[in-house]
């Protein structure tokens, strides 16, 4: 490739980068318009915000969303199994909009173009002596980072959400046991738990709310519980839903089943805490060796080394 064409390519990619970044920022700051429309739809009328007071970037946000969807539709996986895996990962991360898969793929392509073009712009202005082969290598590496970076972010978001569910589930289960043993049905108990834990456990409350909505819509209890376990992907919740499905099939007391599982979860939580406490000395070993011991050696041996240096200097004199 001729090195004289690199500035023109960089200028074109810089224009695309600025355009995509501007559209992305407009879409981010214009997200309040969708929430306002949803509140108006739920309330059945305007909620105090007139049409003139809607965000100025509402149309631009829709344009950005459409651009990402069009871009993602061109690069979206054609294999149904791969698309289902991506959709399942997005659902477990809490991203459940209908076009989430296509927008996710479009975001990866946009990030790849933005990172590589930004590097080419920097190279054309400040690193002009960089070789063409190294330029291509770094640009391809940044494009790969833009493609695989969202995958890492998605896994971290999924892990964080599962951890939140794992921390909130024991309290929700205890409250569910109290509600069931007080005479409520399972559906009423789930609705009560999701109402009571809106502040202390928002993630598990949202999942239980969706479960109750599915049950009210006429979905079978077993299918709704299996859908709950698939949406979260947590082993403890999978075991709980399996127990509830079996109790519903065989006619076992739900209250007794929940109490037994609550005791088992409490024991497992204490064992998990003991395991983390046992791992703590091993985890502290690396900071101890890398940071504390060198400073300690310098503080203890430093004066002696300085004294030896002075003694040897006098001997030579």
TrEMBL record:
<dbReference type="GO" id="GO:0005886">
    <property type="term" value="C:plasma membrane"/>
</dbReference>
<keyword id="KW-1003">Cell membrane</keyword>
<protein>
    <submittedName>
        <fullName>Type II secretion system F domain protein</fullName>
    </submittedName>
</protein>
<feature type="domain" description="Type II secretion system protein GspF">
    <location>
        <begin position="173"/>
        <end position="301"/>
    </location>
</feature>
<keyword id="KW-0472">Membrane</keyword>
<keyword id="KW-1133">Transmembrane helix</keyword>
<feature type="transmembrane region" description="Helical">
    <location>
        <begin position="6"/>
        <end position="29"/>
    </location>
</feature>
<feature type="transmembrane region" description="Helical">
    <location>
        <begin position="282"/>
        <end position="309"/>
    </location>
</feature>
<dbReference type="Pfam" id="PF00482">
    <property type="entry name" value="T2SSF"/>
</dbReference>
<feature type="transmembrane region" description="Helical">
    <location>
        <begin position="132"/>
        <end position="154"/>
    </location>
</feature>
<dbReference type="InterPro" id="IPR018076">
    <property type="entry name" value="T2SS_GspF_dom"/>
</dbReference>
<keyword id="KW-0812">Transmembrane</keyword>
<feature type="transmembrane region" description="Helical">
    <location>
        <begin position="109"/>
        <end position="126"/>
    </location>
</feature>
């Amino acid at each position: 490739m001729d090195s004289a064409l690199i500035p023109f390519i960089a200028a074109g990619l810089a224009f695309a980068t600025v355009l995509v970044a501007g559209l992305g920022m407009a879409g981010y700051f214009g997200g309040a318009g969708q929430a306002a429309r949803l509140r108006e739809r739920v309330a059945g009328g305007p909620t105090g915000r007139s049409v003139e007071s809607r965000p100025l970037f509402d149309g631009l946000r829709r344009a950005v969303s459409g651009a990402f969807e069009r871009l993602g539709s061109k690069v979206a996986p054609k294999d149904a199994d791969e698309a289902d895996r991506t959709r399942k990962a997005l659902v477990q991360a809490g991203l459940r909009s209908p076009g989430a898969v296509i927008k996710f793929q479009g975001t990866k392509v946009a990030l790849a173009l933005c990172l590589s073009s930004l590097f080419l712009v920097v190279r054309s202005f400040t690193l002009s002596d960089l070789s063409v082969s190294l330029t291509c290598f770094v640009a391809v590496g940044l494009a790969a980072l833009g493609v695989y970076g969202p995958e890492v972010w998605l896994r971290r978001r999924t892990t964080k959400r599962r951890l939140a569910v794992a921390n909130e589930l024991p309290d929700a289960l205890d409250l569910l046991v109290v509600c069931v043993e007080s005479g409520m049905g399972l559906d009423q108990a789930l609705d009560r738990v999701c109402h009571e834990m809106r502040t202390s456990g928002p993630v598990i409350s949202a999942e239980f709310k969706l479960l109750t909505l599915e049950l009210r819509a006429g979905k079978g209890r077993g299918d709704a519980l299996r859908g709950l376990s698939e949406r979260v992907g947590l082993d403890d919740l999978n075991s709980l839903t399996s127990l509830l499905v079996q109790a519903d099939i065989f006619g076992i007391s739900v209250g007794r089943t929940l109490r037994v599982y609550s005791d088992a979860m409490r024991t497992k939580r204490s064992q998990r805490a003991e395991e983390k406490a046992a791992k703590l000395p091993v985890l502290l070993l690396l900071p101890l060796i890398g940071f504390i011991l060198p400073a300690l050696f310098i503080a203890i041996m430093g004066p002696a080394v300085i004294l030896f240096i002075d003694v040897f200097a006098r001997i030579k004199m």
